[in-house]
Amino acid sequence: MSLKKRCFPLFPALLAAAVSTATLPVSAASCTSGPGWFQSGCNRLHQVWDEGRTEMYVSGYAWHNRWTYTREKVDTFREVAWGGGLGKGFHDEDGDWHGLYAMAFLDSHSDWQPIAGYAFQKIGRIGENGRVGAGYTVFLTSRSDMFGRAPFPGALPLVSVGYRKADLYATYIPGASGAGNVLFMFGKVAF
C-alpha cells in the first residue's frame, strides 16, 4: 500500500485532535491594523474560532450530472463520498452562520481529498427550529488528479436546510462536458 493511501485515512483523526486543542496563532489584537475590510474579516474569524460551537461534518454523496457524463463514465466514478471532519460555527447578530472547517473524503476516483476553508450563509428561519441557508465557501483543497496534488484554492455556492443542531448542505461544482458538474452533499451536527 502506498504512503499516500496509508496517510490520508489518518487525516480526519489528526484534524479532530488539532481542532480540539488549537487556537488561532494570531491574536484578535492583531486585527487592528490594515484596511477596514481586513479588520472586519479578521475579527469575524477570531469570533468564529473563540465563540463558535464545535461542529462535526459527515460527507455522503457526490452526484455526477448525467447530462455532462456518459453512463459508462459515471459507472467508473465513486458517488458515495465517505469522509468527515470538524469545524467551528458561529451565528452572528443577524442570525447568519459563519464557519471554519476541515474535512477529508473519498473523491470520485476513490482517493482522499482534504479540504479546509471558511463558509458563510444567510439564514432564513422556518418555525422555531427549522432553517434554510444560502451562501458560499472559500477553501483550499488538494486532489490526486489535479496539479500533482498541490493545494489549490476554490470558491463554491453553498445551500442548506437544517433542524435544531443538524444541517444538510449541498454545493455544485461547475465544469465542462466530462469534468466537474458534480452535486456534493454532506451533513453537519453542532455540539
Automatic annotation (TrEMBL):
It comes from the Bacteria. SUPFAM superfamilies: OMPA-like. Keywords: Acyltransferase, Cell outer membrane, Membrane, Signal, Transferase. It is a lipid-anchor. The active site is at 64, 107, 108. The keyword Signal applies. Its main location: membrane. The keyword Flavoprotein does not apply. NCBIfam families: PRK11045.1. Belongs to the lipid A palmitoyltransferase family. This is Lipid A acyltransferase PagP.
